[in-house]
Amino acid sequence: MLTDAALEFLAEYHLGTLSTLGRHHRIHAVPVGFTYEAGVVRIIGSRGSQKFVNAQRSGRAAVCSVDRARWISFEGTARVLDDPDAVAHAVSLYTARYRAPRPNPQRVVLELRVERVLGSPGFRAVAV
Length: 128
Hints:
Elements: H1 4-11, E1 16-21, E2 27-32, E3 35-37, E4 40-46, H2 50-58, E5 60-67, E6 70-81, H3 84-97, E7 107-119
Antiparallel strand pairs: 1-2, 1-5, 3-4, 4-7, 5-6, 6-7
């Protein structure tokens, strides 16, 4: 469960780093724009890019974002979707956080279902 402070951070313009497991069990870490909505992190990009190939193959990914002393990290299961409605929803969220992306007929969306959250003090609500 995220606090209001975490949700505010996730609405601000910050890039993140997507980490996936590449070939030969090497970590593949790349900068990305990402959005968070109700336990799902979304990243848009081009079909066939290495980050999406890795996420599809392993079914796992992590995203971390940092701004000075504030940071948040999400880990979970990942899948890559090319469903037009899923892609359109991800583009809408991306546009709200960053800006409208360039047209891309090969666009897909990586959906990371959050299983674990780490972050700055005050970003995670304490379970009662």
